[in-house]
Amino acid sequence: MKKLIWLAFAAFCFSAVSYAQSTPSGRADVYGTYTFQNNRSNGDSLNANGFSVGTNLWLTKSFGINGEYTFGTGNRDASLTVGTPPTTVTADLRARYNTFVAGPVYRFNPDGRVEPFVRALFGATRVSTRFSTNVPAVPRIEDDATSFTFIGGGGLDVNLTQSKRVAFRLVSVDYQFIRDNRIADSQNGVRVSTGLIIRF
Fold it and tell me: Which of these, 93, 94, 91, 183, lies nearest to 138 by C-alpha position?
C-alpha cells in the first residue's frame, strides 16, 4: 500500500510539472512543509511529527485541485508500578501515518503578496501501529489498516519574490478525520504545517 501511495503521488507530481511547463507561470505549484498532527480517539491523543509534499493545479486564478502526501510518526510511553515487591511495567505505543488526499482548493487575493486559502481534501491514511511492553509474557502487537480520511481547513501563503515563483506557507491549519476500520471508530485531530512553495 505504501508503494502504491508513493507511485500515485509521483505520477500526480509528474503530471503537475508537465502541465506547468506547457502553461503560463502561476498555473501550478509544488510545496514541502513540516507537519504536526494531533490525533484523538476514545479520549486518548497521540502527537505525530513529519512532513507533507503536494501540488496545486490552478484551473482559474482562484480555484484549483490540491493533491498531498503526508508522513507522520509519533509515540507515547506509559508506566505503572504494581505488585509486592513493586515492579514497574512500561508500555510503548508507536504509530506511523501515510496519508494521500486530493480535492478542491480556493485562494483569495491571487494577485496580491499574501494569499489566504481554504481546501477540502479526501483520500486514505495507512495507519501502522506497534504496541510493546517490558513484560516477557506480553508479545509485541503490530497492526496496519487503511482508512478513509477527510482533511479540511486553510492557511496563509506569502509570496517572497516579485515574480511569485517562490512563496512561504506561513501556516496551514486543518481538521483531520480518519475513519478507523479496525475498531469501527474514528480519529479526530488537528494538523499544522509550514514550509516552502515553488510555482511554475
Answer: 91
The torsion angles phi and psi of 5, rounded to 5 degrees, stand at: -65, -45
pLDDT given at position 5: 45
Task: Tell me the sheet residues that pair with 130.
Answer: 94, 142
Domains of the chain: 2-74+97-125+146-199 (2.40.160.20)
* Three-class secondary structure of residue 3 per DSSP: helix
Average pLDDT of span 26-37: 92
Give the distance from CA 74 to its chain's centroid.
13
The per-residue pLDDT for range 12-28, each reduced to its tens digit, is 455 544 443 444 446 89
**Do residues 183 and 156 touch, judged by C-beta distance below 8 A?**
no
Task: Provide CB contacts within 8 A for 60, sequence distance 6+.
Answer: none
Give, in order, the Cα–Cα distances in Å from 58 to each of 24, 53, 69, 85, 159. Answer: 11, 17, 18, 66, 16
Judge if the upstream peptide bond of residue 85 is cis by omega within 30 degrees of 0: yes
For residue 62, give the 3-state DSSP assignment: coil
Q: What is the pTM of this model?
A: 0.77
User: How many Å apart are CA 90 and CA 93, to the nearest integer?
Assistant: 10
| C-beta of residue 146 within 8 angstroms of C-beta of residue 124 | yes
